[in-house]
Amino acid sequence: KDVLVRADHVKVYFKGKDKKSGTVRAVDDVSFDIFKGETFGVVGESGCGKSTLGRTLIRLINPTDGHVYLDGEDISSLRGNDLKQMRKKAQIIFQDPSACLNPRRTIRQILMEPFEIHHLTGKIDVNARIEELLHLVGLDTYHLSRYPHEMSGGQKQRIGIARALALNPQIIICDEAVSALDVSVQAQVLNLLQDLKKRLGLTYFFISHNLNVVYQVSDRVGVMYLGKMVEIATYDQLYEKRYHPYTEALLSAIPQVDASEQKERIHLSGEVPSPSNPPSGCRFHTRCPKACERCSCDTPELREIEPGHFVACHLYD
Ligand code: SF4
Ligand code: MG
């Protein structure tokens, strides 16, 4: 399989809000690949670093350490025009479309922005392209003269998607892209994303706190806990077997269609510890039902224990 994005020992540290909180290790030594054409889903509780990781993969955040490769190019230290050119290839869709659509601009003006930023307005037929984009996301041209507040949440998210598609990106980070929408609208937007992926050959890094959604759309899934990737596997592999005790607990919460396949719900005790002061050894040891002595001092490495199935847990050393 072709690798589109490679994260190589990526760390993102930043200063906490006050002196007491010290350095927040939002992403702490994460390495993995995203293949061309796949949906790589990321799950984990809020604060596990999934949004920070997503932004770092497209250089909206600079990694503190490590490298990110996009299509073979190290983008970790790109500057100026090189960085700007890279941005055409990698886009992001956020949870709240209203927050990123200027309320004083019409939809036409909003969709014009990417072309203006990249000085393409004189070079291509932008109006034709904008109409094409609108049709791609299932909206009609009469929406062009509207303002964001005249549209529904689902329509606004479609505009967000259209804008992300404007410059023919290769990868889109979907950060809670459907989380703010009603369930029925959620399904429509998910279908649209799936459809666009097929038609345009896109790759998605799909972040959601909603396991059901991630599980539905992903080819592969990465599970994050406190800044670490603790398990990576294909959907089918995870369906068969989850190795990491945290994955097991997380996925036990997903309702099964077939009641006989319903796993007993595993409730985790305790709070998620702070990413500025993570537990020693395996970060999950303070909540892990299977922890042993070694877990509190040795940090388990993410290792491939079956072809394509990676786990960071001492149970499988
Ligand atoms: Fe649990 Fe130990 Fe495995 Fe961590 S390494 S998940 S604490 S068994
Ligand atoms: Mg988030």
From TrEMBL:
The keyword Transmembrane does not apply. Residues 5-251 form the ABC transporter domain. One of its GO terms (biological process) is peptide transport. Keywords: ATP-binding, Nucleotide-binding, Transport. CDD domains: ABC_NikE_OppD_transporters (cd03257). It holds the Pfam family oligo_HPY. The keyword Cell inner membrane does not apply. GO terms for molecular function: ATP binding; ATP hydrolysis activity. InterPro entries: AAA+_ATPase, ABC_transp_ATP-bind, ABC_transporter-like_ATP-bd, ABC_transporter-like_CS, Oligopep_ABC_C, P-loop_NTPase. Belongs to the ABC transporter superfamily. This is ATP-binding cassette domain-containing protein. It comes from Brotaphodocola catenula.
